Amino acid sequence: MAELDTFPKLLVDRAERYAERPANREKEFGIWQSWTWSEVAREVELLACGLKAMGFQRGDKLGIIGDNRPRLYWSMAAAQSLGGVPVPTYQDAVAEEMQYVLEHAGVRFVVVENQEQVDKVLEVTDRCPQLEQIIYDEVRGMREYDRKRLSSYETVQERGRQLLARTPQLWREEIAQGSGSDDAIILYTSGTTGRPKGVVLTHDNVLITAVNSIEFEGLHKDEETLAYLPMAWVGDHIFSYAQAYVAGFCVSCPESASTVMTDLREIGPTYFFAPPAIFENLLTNVMIRIEDAAKLKQKLFRYFMDVAKRVGIRILDGEKVSFSDRLLYAIGDLCVYGPLKNTLGLSRVRLAYTAGEAIGPEIFDFYRSLGINVKQLLGQTEASVFITIQRDGAVRPDTVGPPAPGVEVRIEEDGEVMYRSPGVFKEYYKNPEATAETKTPDGWVHTGDAGFFDDEGHLRVIDRAKDVGKLNNGAMFAPKYIENKLKFFPYIKEAVAFGNGRDHTTVFINIDLEAVGNWAERNGIPYASYQELAARPEVSDMVLESIETVNRDLAADRHLAASQIKRFLILHKELDADDGELTRTRKVRRRIIADRYGVLIEALYSTRDVCHVDTEVTFEDGRKGKISADLKLRDTQTFQPAALAN
């Protein structure tokens, strides 16, 4: 195979060139297990031939549901080997959400992780008449199930072994029929504004983008990375599958979602990706631990973090720094930064990315000041991730960098960012109208983001174009920018800002239950639930202080000074994807929140101090319930820009 234009062809090549090098690791029962590239190729071959024996045909769709597991990644390669298309689905999606994807994509076969996912798929099989077979990885709990539609992973591989005994070259013959223009995967969007759309990416889309990004960053076969983000998300597909196959590096899978931090420390990745929410949570945990530390340790931490804030980023970027500052930073690295990075599992990170939404500048600078090379990029599912990317030595918190290799970017008259690249998606599956709305005939794609290029050619994204609005006085209102500044504070988990077409800005706040709960325990404040804790006046005072700090920062920005927050409330429940308030990637669904909590929004723009609200909630088992609360609305202090200047 001279032309490695599909992932199965790459896998065969890697099995020959890197035969004994580790390709995958998985932690099970506290022990790391490894598979070499040659072993992975054999596993994929057996599964692919087993699927073939069961009737899987070229063009068929293979659903994939579960946490990050080597066998699920191998299922992708197995489907692609036969000319099929993997369709990963969010593992925490409720049955109805899964049903939409499985039915819309026309999935005939589905590979799932365990009994929980089997149950969800079985629940919707009557609405997915095309679904024929469910293949499960973990056998625990499956003994009493009807076997008509169910097969274990091992059973399918055994059928593959029997077929291979009769036709030893079958797998390679099937792979040879594939080409770069074939559909490689369908990834469904998060559905922020409506039903998710199936983004069809070809092998060329994904492979060329992976090659360009690897060459740009100098990635190689010795990298280590941890796959812990949803397999249905394009970021995980590029970083844990596509780039791994191209560069030949090892991808490790954690034991469970609850052990990710422990597993991260044990693996010590050199290459790391996390959306802003992950970096925010890590920082929150750091701040909680510092609050629990002895006074001397707290003083030491704050002193050396001030040093890092002053010179850490300059040292990382290779700028000139005085000998005394370098010495202080080195001492700080020995006493604070090094142990902290080790605790976070980021000691060996050579390159880290964040994307998905804007990260707060303070959070971004915090990590870079520790010497962690975190960079921002602008990405989309429709772009095979990469649109822009920051270059080493030219990393700033307020931009997402210049166009990525092979990508063209332009700004429309209305400020919308558009791009064209080899990674541009083929189409939205079964949705030609949406495809035509998003992609022009000559390949330019509407991002939906508003932004501009600065004098150095770096793209600065303001907000989602549809979310950027104006206050009644004509000043710009960028809600996500405000929300990100609020989420820097460890006690604030989520924020939703309002102001478009209004006289001023107001916000909903979700407190971080772990951080605030820890604070409450230290201060002897009793509570029995999120709702009780959120209603405590001491918590409201703490949030008020954070908001007024943000207002001071906004007052210093001539573009956003008018967007200072004048009123806020703390919601009585956490915003939840199961309630439709967030996407599965934790993006705010603004329209749904505005509809559901309209009475609270109107109360914030009145003179009322209290507002009653009844809210329907979805429990983990799918049952519906209702919670009621009387929420307190509070005013905040705002600041005059001129007064600050004086």
Description:
The chain is an alpha/beta fold and 646 residues long. The chain has 3 domains: 248 residues, Rossmann fold (3-Layer(aba) Sandwich); 189 residues, 3-Layer(aba) Sandwich (Rossmann fold); 177 residues, GMP Synthetase, Chain A, domain 3 (2-Layer Sandwich). Helix content is 40%, strand content 22%. It has 22 helices and 28 strands. Strand 21 and strand 22 form a beta hairpin. Helix 2 crosses helix 3, helix 2 crosses helix 6 and helix 11 runs parallel beside helix 17. It is globular.
The low-confidence parts are none
Distance between the termini: 71 Å
Count of individual domains: 3
Instruction: Calculate Rg over CA atoms.
Output: 25 Å
Class from secondary-structure proportions: alpha/beta
The tally of beta strands, per DSSP, is 28
Look at the structure and name the CATH superfamily of the largest domain: ANL, N-terminal domain
CATH topology of the largest domain: Rossmann fold
Beta-sheet strand percentage? Answer: 15-25%
Largest sheet: 5 strands, parallel
- What is the residue-mean pLDDT, rounded to a whole number? 93
